C-alpha cells in the first residue's frame, strides 16, 4: 500500500523522485524518504506529509535516487521507521512496498550474525540480507537476498559506488518507465506520465537492473524481454484541473466516465463462459464488492442467472463450493485479497474474468478475460468514478446478455448523472455534520447503494455510518435510533416503495431525523421526512447511478463542513496491496 519511485539518468534525481512520490501519496502518507547516490549515498526521511519537507529532500544532489511514501504496517510512523532503510555499512539503501512475512525470524538470524537494527520495520532485514551477499555486484546481491524472503515485495535498491538501481517484485506492483538516456521505476504509472509514455510492467519473479543507458531483466535468473507498452493516460488526468479536491474533480468526471466505459463493452467481447453460465461468483473488496452486489441483483432478476457475491478477504480462507465463471473486480488490479481469490479460483480450474481500471496490472495477466473501465487515474482515496465505471461495465454486461434491451436506458444515463451533480444537499449536510452515527437504508438494488453511501461518509467525514437493508433495522439497530441519529433512506418507486415508506414512518416515530432520496415530485415522501432530496424520474438502473452520485456529494460536503482531509483520509490508502 506504500508507494515507491526510482530514477536514474541525466536529470537531478531527487526532485523527480519527490514529485513522483507526491503523485503516489494516495497509497500512503505516514512518512516519506529519499536516498540519492552522488556517488556518496545521501538519505533524507521524515514523518508526515511530503509537503512539509519536500524542499529539503529535493535539494539532495545526484542523478540516481530511490524514494518511498509510507502506509505504516510494521512500526509506528516516525523518522526512524520511514524508508529508505540502510545496511550496517550505510552504503546500501532499500525502499519496499509489501510485507515480509518471515522478517522476525530473519531479523533474529541477522542479529545473531552481528547485524545492528535501527527500525521496527520488516523492510530493514532486506538491506542487511543484501549487505551479506554484496561482493561488488548489486544485482547478484539482490537476487541472492530475495531467496530468503516470504511474503510480498516491490523493491528498489541502490548502493554507493554503483550507478544503477535494482528493482525486484513479487506480488506487489512495479512498473518501469523508459526514457531517452533515463529510466524510471514506480508503484504505478502516475509518476511517469510527465516524462514518458513507454512503460514495462514487471512480473512476479522479475529482477531489473537500471542504468542510464539500458535495463536488463532477469526472471528466476534467466534473461527475459518484457514488452514496452504505451500508456493511454496523460499528465492532465492526474491534475486537479481547478477543483479544490481530486475527489470533487473525479465526481464531476462521472457522466463521461460512465458513457465511455459502457460504450467500450461490446457483444463481441463477452466471453463464451459468460454467455450461458450455470452460475457466476463475484469476488471483490470495499466499493468494488458493493458493485458486485448490484450485479447480483441485476443478473439474477433480469437474466435469471444465479450469482454469488463474496468478499475477497474471506474467499481465500473460506472458499465456498464454486463452479462456473469467477469474476473479480478491482480498480487498481493489484488488490491483494482479490488477487489471492483469483489464484484460488484458477486452482479450482474455474474460468476467470477481471474488471479493472489499469492496463498491465497484475490481475490482467492472471485472468482469462479482462474488461477495462475507462475511468482514467483515480487519485482520491475514496472511490467515486471507479465505482460508477464498474457499474457501467456490469450494467452493460447484463444489457448484452439480455439482447441489448437496456441500450437506450444506459446510453442516456450520463445526462441524468450530470443533472444530479447540481443537487442541493445543504440541509442534509446540516443534519449529518453534527452527528456521531448515521444509518443508510435501502432495499433491493438500493441496499448495496446504502452500503456504499455509508462507506463514503465514514471514509472521508469520520462519522460512524452503517448501511442496512431497511427491513433489517428492526432486528437490533432500532435500539440505536434517536433524535441524534440521522437516517438516510433511499426510496425510489418500485415494488418495495410501499414498505420503504412504512419503514421510514417507523424510524420517524422513534425520533430519528430522516433524509430521503426519491424521485422528483414524490409529494408523499417529501411530506413525511425532514429533508427530501429529489432525483430525476427515470429507469431504476439510472436511479441507482443518480442516487450513488448524490450520496458521494453528501459525504464530500459533510467532510468539507467538518474540515476533513478529503483526498487523504486518515489511516487509509488507495490501493490495498497487503492482506
Low-pLDDT windows of residues = none
Q: Largest beta sheet, briefly?
A: 8 strands, antiparallel
**Helical proportion?**
25-40%
Strand percentage, roughly? 15-25%
Class computed from helices, strands and strand pairing: alpha/beta
Structural Rg: 25 Å
Shape: globular
Per DSSP E runs of 2 or more residues, the count of β-strands stands at 25
Strand order of the largest sheet: 3-2-4-1-10-9-11-15
How many helices in DSSP terms?
20
Between the first and last Cα atoms, what is the distance in angstroms?
A: 10 Å
Q: What is the multimeric organization of the chains shown? A: single chain
Round the mean pLDDT to the nearest integer and report it.
Answer: 93
What's the short story on this structure?
With 579 residues, the protein is of the alpha/beta class.
Give an overview of the whole structure.
The longest helix is centred in the C-terminal third of the chain and has 22 residues. The strands form 4 sheets. The chain has an 8-stranded antiparallel β-sheet with strand order 3-2-4-1-10-9-11-15, with helices on one face. The chain has a 7-stranded antiparallel β-sheet with strand order 5-6-7-8-12-13-14. Strands 17-16-18-19-20 form a 5-stranded parallel β-sheet, sandwiched between helices. The relative contact order is 0.09. Helix content is 34%, strand content 23%. The mean pLDDT is 93. The chain starts with a strand and ends in an 18-residue tail after the last helix. It contains 20 helices and 25 strands. With 579 residues, it is an alpha/beta fold. α7 packs antiparallel against α15 and α17 packs parallel to α20.
Amino acid at each position: 500500500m506504500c508507494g515507491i519511485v526510482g530514477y536514474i539518468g541525466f536529470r537531478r534525481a531527487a526532485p523527480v523522485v519527490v514529485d513522483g512520490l507526491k503523485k503516489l501519496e494516495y497509497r500512503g502518507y505516514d512518512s516519506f524518504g529519499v536516498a540519492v547516490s552522488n556517488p556518496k549515498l545521501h538519505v533524507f526521511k521524515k514523518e508526515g506529509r511530503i509537503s512539509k519537507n519536500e524542499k529539503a529532500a529535493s535539494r539532495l544532489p545526484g542523478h540516481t535516487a530511490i524514494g518511498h511514501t509510507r502506509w505504516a504496517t510494521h512500526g509506528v510512523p516516525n523518522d526512524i521507521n520511514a524508508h529508505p532503510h540502510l545496511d550496517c555499512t550505510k552504503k546500501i539503501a532499500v525502499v519496499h512496498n509489501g510485507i515480509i512475512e518471515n522478517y522476525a525470524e530473519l531479523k533474529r538470524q541477522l542479529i545473531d550474525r552481528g547485524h545492528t537494527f535501527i527500525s521496527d520495520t520488516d523492510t530493514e532485514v532486506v538491506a542487511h540480507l543484501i549487505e551479506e551477499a554484496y561482493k561488488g555486484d548489486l544485482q547478484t546481491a539482490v537476487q541472492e537476498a530475495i531467496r530468503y524472503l516470504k511474503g510480498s515485495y516491490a523493491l528498489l535498491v541502490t548502493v554507493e559506488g554503483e550507478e544503477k538501481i535494482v528493482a525486484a517484485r513479487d506480488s506487489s506492483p512495479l512498473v518501469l518507465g523508459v526514457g531517452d538516456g533515463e529510466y524510471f521505476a514506480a508503484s504505478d504509472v502516475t509518476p511517469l506520465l510527465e516524462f514518458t509514455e513507454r512503460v514495462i510492467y514487471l512480473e512476479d519473479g522479475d529482477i531489473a537492473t537500471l542504468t542510464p543507458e539500458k535495463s536488463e531483466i532477469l526472471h528466476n535468473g534467466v534473461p527475459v524481454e518484457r514488452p514496452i507498452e504505451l500508456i493511454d493516460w496523460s499528465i492532465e488526468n492526474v491534475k486537479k484541473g481547478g477543483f479544490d479536491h481530486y475527489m470533487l474533480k473525479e465526481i464531476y468526471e462521472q457522466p463521461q466516465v460512465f458513457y465511455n466505459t459502457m460504450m467500450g463493452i461490446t457483444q463481441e467481447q463477452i466471453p463464451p463462459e459468460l454467455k450461458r453460465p450455470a452460475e457466476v461468483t463475484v469476488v471483490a473488496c470495499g466499493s468494488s464488492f458493493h458493485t458486485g452486489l448490484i450485479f447480483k441483483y441485476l443478473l439474477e432478476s433480469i437474466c435469471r442467472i444465479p450469482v454469488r457475491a463474496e468478499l475477497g478477504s474471506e474467499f481465500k480462507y473460506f472458499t465456498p463450493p464454486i463452479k462456473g465463471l469467477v469474476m473479480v473486480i478491482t480498480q487498481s488490479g493489484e488488490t491483494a485479497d482479490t488477487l489471492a481469490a483469483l489464484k484460488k479460483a484458477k486452482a479450482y480450474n474455474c474460468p476467470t474474468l477481471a474488471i479493472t481500471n489499469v492496463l498491465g496490472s497484475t490481475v490482467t495477466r492472471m485472468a482469462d478475460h479482462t474488461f477495462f473501465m475507462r475511468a482514467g487515474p483515480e487519485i482520491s482515496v475514496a472511490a467515486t468514478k471507479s465505482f460508477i465505471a464498474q457499474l457501467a461495465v456490469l450494467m452493460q454486461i447484463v444489457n448484452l446478455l439480455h439482447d441489448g434491451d437496456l441500450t437506450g436506458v444506459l446510453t442516456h444515463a450520463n445526462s441524468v448523472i450530470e443533472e444530479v451533480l447540481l443537487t442541493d444537499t445543504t440541509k442534509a449536510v446540516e443534519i449529518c455534520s453534527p452527528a456521531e452515527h448515521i444509518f443508510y437504508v435501502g432495499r433491493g438494488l438500493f441496499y448495496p447503494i446504502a452500503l456504499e453511501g455509508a462507506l463514503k461518509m465514514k471514509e472521508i467525514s469520520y462519522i460512524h455510518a452503517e448501511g442496512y437493508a431497511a427491513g433489517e433495522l428492526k432486528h437490533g439497530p432500532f435500539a440505536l435510533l434517536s433524535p441524534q441519529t440521522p437516517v438516510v433512506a433511499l426510496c425510489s418507486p418500485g415494488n418495495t416503495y410501499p414498505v420503504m415508506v412504512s419503514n421510514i414512518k417507523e424510524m420517524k416515530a422513534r425520533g430519528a431525523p430522516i433524509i430521503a432520496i426519491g424521485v422528483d415530485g414524490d409529494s408523499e415522501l417529501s411530506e413525511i421526512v425532514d429533508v427530501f432530496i429529489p432525483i430525476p424520474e427515470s429507469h431504476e438502473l439510472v436511479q441507482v447511478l443518480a442516487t450513488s452520485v448524490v450520496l458521494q456529494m453528501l459525504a464530500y460536503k459533510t467532510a468539507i463542513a467538518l474540515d476533513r482531509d478529503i483526498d487523504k483520509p486518515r489511516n487509509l490508502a488507495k490501493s490495498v496491496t497487503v492482506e
